[in-house]
Write a structure and sequence with these properties.
Blueprint: H1 16-56, E1 60-64, H2 74-88, E2 93-100, H3 107-127, E3 135-141, H4 152-158, E4 160-167
Parallel strand pairs: 2-3
Antiparallel strand pairs: 1-4, 2-4
Helix pairs in contact: 2-3
Length: 172
Amino acid sequence: MLQIEQTPHAPKGRDLAELVQELRERNEALRYVTRWRAVRESYQAQALRRSMHAITDGLKVSIPFRAGSWCLEPHLERHLAELSEALIDIPCLQVKLEGFADTRGSRRSNRKLSMRRVYAVWSALARAGLPVERMRLRAHGDRAAMYPRGDRGGYAFDRRVLVSFTLGGVPR
């Protein structure tokens, strides 16, 4: 049989049965808290996955450019820096940068122009701290223009870099 010696540190006036009962109650409370924490973390993980899927299933950012230019407007530089700061803390998100040009100019010059635009956005995001290995680049030139040659009002919508997001390392 187990014998417990009375030491100066043992609580006075409490017998072994009381101590065992208190230990059982504390263990049960610990099991409850542990289960509750696991459930809460599971719900948080599910909510995070839903948020990530919402971002990758349709969130796109269009960065406009002036005609014939690949220079970012100063206010867009600031917006891209803010975007980069937000994305740094979400390492599972990959960033896709696609450059476009309107239908004016030759196919070759439009492809070069759209690639320069992509590099301008890529550079701004990288300067703000987004790791370059998380970015994928593609230049379409005028091949994916939304507006036909001669639609002067539509040209502005074709001069852009489209920023979209994909999950890397998180199961869907």
